[in-house]
Amino acid sequence: MITNEQREKLRGWFAGRLPDDLFEELTEITVDREEITVIGRIPAPRLAEDAPATERDAALESRAQEFRERTREDRMAVAREAEHRFGRKVSWGVECGGRRTLYTHVAAPVMTRLRQPERQVLDTLIASGVARSRSEALAWCVRLVQRHTDDWLAELRESLEHVQRVRAQGPDTEPEPAPRADEEE
Q1: Phi and psi for 39 in degrees, rounded to 5?
Q2: Rounded to two decimals, what is the model's pTM?
Q3: Phi and psi, residue 94, nearest 5°
Q4: Alpha-carbon distance 126 to 107, whole Å?
Q5: CB count, 10 Å around CB of 14?
Q6: Which of 111, 25, 22 is nearest to 70 (CA)?
Q7: pLDDT in tens, 31-65
Q8: What is the spatial distance between Cα 100 and Cα 81, in angstroms, rounded to a whole number?
Q9: Closest Cα to residue 83, out of 38, 16, 22?
């Protein structure tokens, strides 16, 4: 977990490092232990107002793919620098016409030990066709919890930041030197 200040520094680094014409707007940067995901807005293709949904979907998909191919070298150069600097892989995505497209991103393995009742939940999701594997079922559960507890998770993250600030003031930190007697007013 990183603090808001670290997140702001990270966002500032990318805002300063990305070529000015890469995105219309840098919309989101997310970070965890393994990965930094950078998402920016790109212009939507021009379509007739009465264009069918199928045409619109194909145009948005094509625009995202064109952007990916055209900007690959620039994005890779920034990613190499960021990976060296921050020790995390960098993934990319775009928002275009209200649609979000993520390019190759990290699928990090998570080790866990589940008891039978938890495994039964995952197996039910597999049997019902919601997921193809326990791993996919677990990811589905995490997304469901995330969707329904955003406010609670935000409060929890704020609390963790407070804990980090208090820890930084602990006995292992260097105290500020006391003023010398001849410096006091």
Answers
A1: -125, 130
A2: 0.66
A3: -135, 155
A4: 20
A5: 17
A6: 22
A7: 888 899 999 999 999 999 999 999 999 999 999 99
A8: 25
A9: 38
